[in-house]
């Protein structure tokens, strides 16, 4: 017997969605960090998100990596450690099964780098990891060396990146004078990228004094004596040397970096082209677009739902925050508020069947 519809969902809306789902041959799913929240992984912009207490410019940009690669590696060592402890939840398994049942016409575009979708058995050809994968690494010398290593699940990667050791180490502080300034070249690069994305809507503005000032401490810094947030256990000044970090085994002259897309970097060319091809004018119409667990604030992913609309898709948003649904059309689109791990298996049940036991597979 099927489980009852979760009380937060409108049975009429669910029935309408089910009717469309059962007829859909081309489905695009767009995933954000919210789908992994039930697996115990922090989202990015939520109340307890990864960016709370962290300066994005220091831990997730090329400039931050050049300034202190040890700090960046500490941040990603923590994320790798947490992702390895986590397990795929019913939402990951439900999407993987939907892909198998529908076939090649069902494609998932994920911003997540946690590797939980692959671990849930999502068909590789139908999963586009837009922002890379925490467990892939490559040499910083992309042109001269080009070494790439996929599926490296060692934890820790080096003794100095032992998460347990870092969690018990006193947290350092970066004084305002020590904080790296925003790189004008990086700002210019971001402006060019935004111009490509927004077209005529883009308005060019010169960097302000604040843009070029030393990076500020994040709002809501930890109060003395308060229990630290998980990410706050990572020292804010690494003090690590090049020898402490993962070394390239091929050239033996450079360090490795995570194969993830940082702020200010473009998506991998092949991945970006494959994603855009789904929405091309000469592509087949799209029947349904699922937008799951994303705030839709990071481009180009934030624009995929609108591209799908133009290809004929109806949009279904699954999120804890209804405000994250963009451009809703009354009577055509749906918003299902709740935990994706609970909501998604129910929404997809007419196609995927019962989900009991998947998480044990």
From TrEMBL:
Gene3D superfamilies in the record: TPP-binding domain
Ranges that cross the membrane: none
Coiled-coil intervals: none
Binding site for Zn(2+): 139, 145, 248, 251
Keywords: Metal-binding, NAD, Transferase, Zinc
InterPro entries the UniProt entry points to: DHS-like_NAD/FAD-binding_dom, NAD-dep_sirtuin_deacylases, Sirtuin, Ssirtuin_cat_dom
PROSITE patterns the record matches: SIRTUIN
Family annotation (PANTHER family): NAD-DEPENDENT PROTEIN DEACYLASE SIRTUIN-5, MITOCHONDRIAL-RELATED
Family named by the database record: Belongs to the sirtuin family. Class I subfamily.
Name used for this protein in its record: Deacetylase sirtuin-type domain-containing protein
